[in-house]
Description:
Blueprint: H1 5-9, H2 17-31, H3 41-55, H4 58-67, H5 108-116, H6 120-140, E1 145-151, H7 153-158, E2 160-166, E3 175-181, E4 190-193, E5 203-209, E6 215-218, E7 221-228, H8 230-235, E8 237-241, E9 248-252, E10 261-264, E11 276-282, H9 290-302
Parallel strand pairs: 1-5, 7-11
Antiparallel strand pairs: 2-3, 4-5, 6-7, 8-9, 10-11
Helix pairs in contact: 2-3
Amino acid sequence: MSTDYYKTLDVSRSATDDEIKKQYRRLARKYHPDVSKLKNAEKRFKEINEAYDVLKNKEKRSNYDRFGSADGNPFQGSGFRPPPNGAQGHRGGPGAGPDFGGFGQGSFSDIFDKMFTGGPQQQQQGYQSQANFNQNSQRQSQPEQTIEVSISLEEVYSGGEKTFKLTLPGLRDAKRIKVKIPKGIKEGQKIRLSKQGSQGSDLFLKIKYKLHHLYTLDGNDIFLNLPITIWEAALGSKLSIPTLGGTVGMKIPAGSQSGKKLRLKGRGIGKVPGDQYVTLLIKLEEEPSKETQKLYEKLQEISDFNPREN
């Protein structure tokens, strides 16, 4: 075997597909010609791509393990060499060589060509096809680039265009990229930008949600804690409630308790939007005025309500 692809990627013969992929990405980053300062970086990068192209494909890897060749040819890479053109097989006569009937008196190398390539013309086409295949494989095995970007919950809710300033591997200056954010995009989802990465590779933007000063999330549902006064809870009122899509009016029922949850349907996030839940929190003044304090004392005198009775 002329080339040990497992040794090239520094993995064992029993390595899993994930182990091979992980090791390939590590080595590709190390030896990428645009990043690495090593003298043999370009050569090693090509060797790594060639090895990965074979080992990532189940059929090619199986053939390589059995025959030492990705295409199943048992002679390729085995050290076998046909005799020179002068060594001819003749029919009949003392000391005649083996008879390859149907091939006439051509050399063994000609016979070999006909057996495995279909003759010089097809062989030349085969070389060209293999060259094209290698070029395509090198392009396809270009490491994908993934960069995490953060967006606000408002941008998740509404979608639309957003411009990111990104620093890509191998590029000195930051690159501004305008991206269309799908409405309701999920955290962890990736947006593919064709040929926007370094060296014309595909660039993937992995979505991360920014923390919000008002809201928390549970799936597609939004949660908001809403402070209210004791009289708003006791008498009821209509308040303006902040949502990701703007403020909306919501009625607070009279006699509402602290911790009561009210729902705003369809004000959550997602392709099928969830809901927004508003939790009421009754708040008292830390330092009430004298007038307010007197009102509390008057209420204490006239009310016989005992919340601990039961």
